Automatic annotation (TrEMBL):
This is YcxB-like C-terminal domain-containing protein. It holds the Pfam family YcxB. Residues 108-166 form the YcxB-like C-terminal domain. It comes from Eubacterium plexicaudatum ASF492. The keyword Transmembrane helix applies. Keywords: Membrane, Transmembrane, Transmembrane helix. The chain crosses the membrane at residues 32-51, 57-76. It comes from the Bacteria.
Length: 176
């Protein structure tokens, strides 16, 4: 099975966000970011209580900080996306494309071959750590931070066939 892969900045952005929310380090960082702001808010309320502030002020502060903590939970994913976009733009400004815009991926019996203008990459199926099957992409991780990114749109309606093939070869396909 051979497929022509066309990637763009949006694909690379989606991959990085997926990686940030599914890797162990990324999940840890997201948890810490989600907890840090509410903990600072609780600490602020405790400090005002210890300082003997008026009860109505402490209650008002608690309500405002609780609302801010809830808003933070919704804002954090947007902030992460903005940060990843900035990093991509910075890398592109330096003249380095962080991905191969045009490549060919071939699924052979014992290996996956990615061919691009930068050369070939051979990935043995036993070296694949995890395959994530999402609605729009297949992410084939073959190391902690390296993956083959295959947009479903490039599979020509053969996503189920490719997923079945990868499941047979790797037994590590999971829904993303």
């Amino acid at each position: 099975m051979k497929y022509q892969i066309e990637l763009n900045d949006e694909d690379y952005l989606r991959f990085n966000i997926f990686y940030a929310t599914h890797s162990k380090v990324g999940q840890h960082n997201v948890k810490m970011a989600r907890l840090a702001f509410p903990l600072v808010c609780v600490l602020a309320v405790v400090i005002f209580m210890m300082a003997g502030a008026a009860t109505t002020f402490i209650i008002a502060e608690g309500v405002v900080l609780a609302a801010a903590s809830v808003c933070w939970q919704f804002y954090l994913p947007k902030m992460m996306e903005k940060s990843v976009k900035k990093n991509i733009d910075r890398i592109k400004t330096d003249g380095k494309m962080p991905y191969h815009a045009h490549s060919e991926i071939e699924l052979l019996d014992f290996t996956i071959v990615e061919r691009s203008s930068h050369g070939q990459i051979h990935v043995k199926y036993e070296d694949i750590e995890k395959v994530y099957d999402t609605e729009a992409y297949l992410f084939i991780f073959y190391s902690a931070a390296e993956a083959l990114l295959i947009p479903v749109r490039c599979l020509g309606g053969q996503k189920e066939r490719v997923v079945a093939f990868l499941t047979d070869k790797t037994a590590c396909v999971c829904k993303g």
